[in-house]
Predict the 3D structure of the following.
Amino acid sequence: MEKSSAVNIHFAHANGFPAGSYRKLFGALNDDFHVSAIEKYGHNNRFPISKNWGNQTQELIESIESTQDKPVYAIGHSFGGVVSYMAACIRPELFKGLIMLDPPMITGLTRVFFRGAKATPLIDKITPAGKTVNRCRQWNKDEDLVAYFQSRALFKNIDSDCIRDYVSSATEEQDQHRHLHFKPEVEASIFRNIPHDIYRYYGKLTCPALLVTGKHTQVCTERRIRPFIKANNLIHNVFDGGHMFPLESPVETAQLINQTIEGWQNAIPATKLL
């Protein structure tokens, strides 16, 4: 159990990006913030990928139960924001506050479309799953992987330190090669099972919550989040960046997190801080 004097943070990563990828963000958080995280969702045999991420939400809940002695402030990026939200609705007594960073919420009539698509190969076209299964997963051990990933579209705006942390946390050296150990098939399965039933949790969130979306995101769009914000009475902030803004601007994202949690700790409305 974590010491009760710390401000306990539970962080949930974006799909495909182990928690170690966020070291620079963690390092810029307040000194009294103690961060716990599951390093790689989807790789624990006790919690195989399930429809609508039910097992992944339970994995998060059990992680908090086993490591914390008091309610946590949950922070989640993308996939991590969704499972943190669902967990906070299912077990509200475990959560003191929630910060969601560009979560892919499927709302409105879009959920009907996704529900049908998930039963067909179409899901691989409307999510990154199709590209994920075909991604490179092995390189010569001497290849400059930071340069390699910087050349990929998803990483083009990501902070170079975060790319280095991604390489060190998502790959490992074996047999004269470096191998990707966040399994692409797991990553693809997570994408394929994106929740289409998020509406079931509406009205169940009891802790203070902030939704932060990227100004240039194509994932957490205004049309998708409007009903989600209304149903959960959320504070909404727009960050100057894309879907990956926590890794594009890790220090600035940490500053926003610090400011928000400090406000909650002091019972100051977060709207006055942003």
The chain is about 40% helix and 15% strand. The CA atoms of residues 45 and 261 lie 34 Å apart.
